[in-house]
Amino acid sequence: MLNRKKENIETLKILILDSGRQTLPFLKSYKKAGYHTTLISNTWLNECYFSRYPSEKFIWPDYMSARNEFEDRLFNFLENNETDVVISLSDITSDILSKNRDKISELSAVTQPKYDIFSIGANKLNLMIYCMDNGFPCPKTYALSKDSFKYVKDKLDFPVIVKPVGGVGALGVSRINSIEELEERFDKLNNEFGNLIIQEYIPVEDRNQYMAEAFVDNDGKMQVCVVIEKSRIFPVKAGTSSANVTVIHPEITDITKRLLESLKWRGAADIDFIVDPRDNIPKILEINPRVTAGIKIAFSAGVDFADMFVKLALGQNIPEIKKYRQEVYCRNFFLEILWFLTSSFRMKKETSPSFFKIWGRNMCDQLFSVDDPLTWLGFFLHMLKKYLSIKKLRAKFHY
User: What CATH number has the domain spanning 9-110?
Assistant: First the structure.
């Protein structure tokens, strides 16, 4: 049985279920605090397995392709190993912990909201319906099926965005320019990605995309919101941010606070926004029920999300953080190279901060750090293995 009032917090044992780049600052923070961290991965070919910060590492089944086996391994581990806190930093592991929250809480502490709340935020259609019903700014969004083609044609102007209800990142996101193109591509998208939504297209302009990294305490109060501008993304039409900058944006902070507290959220949330150039209003695109892959920027701006995870899990007070460092510039060097190779001359010329700004006091890289130098090698090997598949490579570049 979990003892949440452990007298010596320095002996905390933490199980981390994910090994993406978002995990790296957590590992470093917990190492500095003296905690024992167990890292789970489905392969040794990733950045975290090459990190020097985990206390121990295990390879488990891939929760993407073998979720039941992963869950069995998780429960077996918790039943046989003292574990104070279980931390998830991806969509799927967050879903696993939220769905099994009551059972896991008998063995360890978790930070996920209850599943009825989680399922609103994590499901893109449910979230958009909630936002439209409750007056939160968002693109008009509808469920998509063959039977709804005529309905959405009357409701939306083309181009539109079509994407999976439960997609991760930009995978499966497509811009559709006409009803004829929608009819032509629907079956393929539906077969590959499952249930789909169709969404009002908001014009993408330079520097009009943001994300809000927020954390909500056990009383349902948002205690921090770090707003991050997506300076560059790869692929350039719709993809993952390769360079980000911390900014102050009171309107995005206010919308984030009202949304999460209205939902009765708990723990971390990563909310994607786009400022609509037609009315200059920030519109909610989605909630990711975990921290962003580039969360290192928030740590560099002075906000230790790893510490908040532990405090929340153990029922401790989480002080409100109103200020963080602005204009912290964080990039993913590997994705930046790909951005440079595929972006237009105008984009290269007008991008800010400059692509060629590679060093400075307010700069960091999502992967590389002098005190943990081999993580970049693990990421490179992971990406090499991942995109040896022509199908996956094409999917990455398609929009």
Answer: 3.40.50.720
